[in-house]
Specification:
The chain is of the alpha+beta class. Helices cover 19% and strands 36% of the residues. α5 (196-203) packs antiparallel against α8. GO terms for molecular function: beta-carotene 15,15'-dioxygenase activity; carotenoid dioxygenase activity; metal ion binding.
């Protein structure tokens, strides 16, 4: 018996020694990779500084787009020291409300004004629902449990319902009454049942320890509707009841490790998305297609058949083998896919160490201010890169639209100087908004236009490392986010886009904006203490002009006395005036949402 105990003791010691050695050597390799990559990036940064043409710095670069927009910091600090609120008009508590239970049965709204009777469909919304799990709280708004909303329009009446997305993550958290799975900015509560062996094996596979909390957007695929996040999953929902149906695991099907939360729908029903795929020579950006129609027979595939026929139609290698860029959206025109590779990257070495340690992915994001943003034009016909452009470093989440005109490709983007706005969405940062004199500057964005000459170089003749340098022009002088256009204009020349304000220091941060890209002018709608969400355009039945139709935007009210109040507003898209609204008193607090879709006849 004693010999047996000694035998197992030796085995245990030997196994521990081997495992410790393996982990140490792996970490050492990652450190070496990171060291050499950092040296390489430093050379790239220095090369960019040395070779960037002087002429390009005299043109309107990214920095010039933001000059004079920020209030003097010394003045803000003085007000802070005097005990004054820095941004008294901005109520960030609208993001921090916790929905306590579903509203599965539609409730009828009180109508003010008039709701067009031709509106017959559902405004579906997705976004944060609760930052609480039991006695624990998420650290970042992007981690909040997904909450689905439905505003149903019929015969001039509107009803409302909401329901939590019952993802695997949500169900595990709810059952355990704690945060079970590590999210973007929140570490999971320690689980004593998970051994070091479990953590090591989990580094190299996609599994139950990866969050499927799809709380960003909703898009149709075929005849069905899916909630999206940036992890490679899609969750099917019932657009009428908001019931969670089943999960499509793209990672297991194709090896994709990331995809954007904003796919594109083609006229024939095909769906395109941009994904990151690991390969032997490093990660690649791949455009994946879910075909809706057979090109030869004209047969229309079911949604399941679309998933089964998913294919890669374009591929481009990431510029940094161990630092693929962070992608939230991409562009598509008649002849091109457009990939905008910003210098915000995901450090693969840090990400893998984080997986092993159970740390959030947020710390794996690396920003290289001195490296340029690359814009790739990729041919839709053969999937090959046609041309690559460079611009100053900027951060973005959302591309407004893109189109071809003459010999150019035009792309409009909601741009930030850097990714500081992600820091602004941490719960603690939102709670301490009025104590941070840099908050408004960190969240400052502007809609910028980049004109990409396809078969010639820019007029200035600026070439940076054999890639043309392009500088942007400003479309309007208001901060714009969650931009939407008339969907019929996606990928083609357009005139108008619609957005919400991103200027937290504005007189009214809850502003809806209409931008005329031809005249570079704006129209705004706002109401004191009202916070609209992403404006969605719905074309009128007899539309002739691009802006013939209405804007639908879900709204909530600021203040602790209005937490149980929600609504939806209808604007005339042409005149930018209110037509009507529906107001709902709810049984549970309603937080601000992110993105959605108008489902006609649902």
């Amino acid at each position: 018996m004693k010999k047996t105990a000694q035998y197992f003791s030796k085995k245990k010691y030997l196994l521990k020694t081997i495992l410790t050695s393996k982990v140490k050597s792996t970490i050492d390799r990652y450190k070496k990779c990171r060291f050499w990559l950092t040296k390489g990036l430093w050379r790239v940064a220095n090369n960019w500084k040395e070779t960037a043409p002087v002429a390009s710095r005299k043109t309107a670069g990214i920095d010039s787009m933001f000059q004079g927009l920020d209030e003097n910091r010394d003045v803000l600090v003085k007000r802070l020291n005097a005990g004054q609120e820095l941004y008294p008009n901005c109520d960030t508590s609208i993001w921090l409300r916790n929905c306590t239970h579903d509203i599965p049965t539609p409730v009828q709204g009180k109508i003010e004004g008039k709701i067009p009777e031709w509106l017959s469909g559902s405004l579906l919304r997705n976004g944060p629902g609760s930052i609480q799990v039991g006695n624990y709280e998420f650290k970042h708004i992007f981690d909040s449990s997904a909450l689905l909303h439905r505003f149903a329009f019929k015969n001039g009446a509107v009803s409302y319902q909401c329901r939590f997305l019952e993802s695997n993550t949500y169900k595990q958290n709810k059952a355990a009454q704690r945060i079970v799975i590590t999210e973007f900015g929140t570490r999971a509560c320690p689980d004593p049942c998970k051994t070091i062996f479990h953590r090591v094996s989990n580094v190299f596979k996609w599994g139950d320890d990866q969050s499927d909390n799809a709380m960003i957007s909703i898009y149709p695929i075929g005849d069905e509707y899916y909630a999206f996040t940036e992890n490679p999953i899609m969750i099917k929902i019932n657009p009428t009841t908001l019931e969670t149906l089943n999960t499509i695991d793209i990672a297991r099907m194709t090896g994709i490790v990331h995809h954007t939360a904003h796919p594109h729908m083609a006229a024939d029903g095909a769906v395109f998305n941009l994904a990151t795929v690991p390969k032997i020579d490093g990660p690649h950006y791949c455009v994946v297609k879910f075909p809706r129609v057979d090109s030869e027979s004209g047969y229309q595939y079911s949604t399941d058949e679309m998933f089964g026929r998913m294919c890669i139609v374009a591929t481009i290698k990431c510029r940094w083998p161990l630092h693929p860029g962070y992608m939230h959206s991409f562009g598509i025109t008649e002849h091109y896919f457009i990939v905008v590779e910003q210098p915000l990257s995901i450090s693969l070495s840090t990400a893998m160490i984080n997986r092993f340690k159970g740390d959030p992915m947020y710390s794996a994001l690396k920003w290289f201010q001195d490296c340029p943003t690359l814009i790739y034009l990729i041919s839709r016909s053969d999937g090959k890169t046609v041309k690559t452009f460079k611009s100053d470093a900027f951060f973005y989440l959302h591309i407004i639209n893109q189109y071809e005109e003459d010999d150019n490709v035009v792309i409009d983007i909601c741009c930030y100087r850097d990714p500081s706005m992600i820091d602004c969405m941490f719960v603690e940062a939102l709670q301490n908004l009025n104590k941070n004199p840099d908050y408004a500057a960190m969240f400052r964005s502007r809609p910028l236009r980049f004109v990409l000459p396809v078969n010639r170089n820019p007029i200035s003749g600026d070439i940076v490392n054999e890639h043309p340098y392009v500088s942007p022009e400003k479309l309007c002088d208001l901060g714009c986010e969650t931009p939407r256009i008339n969907d019929l204009k996606i990928g083609t020349k357009y005139r108008f886009f619609y957005a919400i304000s991103s200027d937290v220091d504005a007189k009214n941060p809850g502003t809806l904006i209409k931008v005329d890209t031809y005249n570079k002018t704006c129209k705004t709608w706002c109401e004191k203490n009202v916070y609209p969400s992403e404006p969605i355009f719905v074309s009128s039945p007899d539309a002739e002009d691009e802006d013939d139709g209405v804007i639908l935007s879900s709204i909530i009210w600021g203040g602790s006395e209005c937490t149980h109040k929600a609504g939806v507003i209808v604007l005339d898209a042409k005149s930018w005036t209110e037509i009507g609204r529906a107001i709902f008193i709810t049984q549970s607090p309603v937080p601000k949402c992110l993105h959605g879709w108008y489902a006609a006849a649902v």
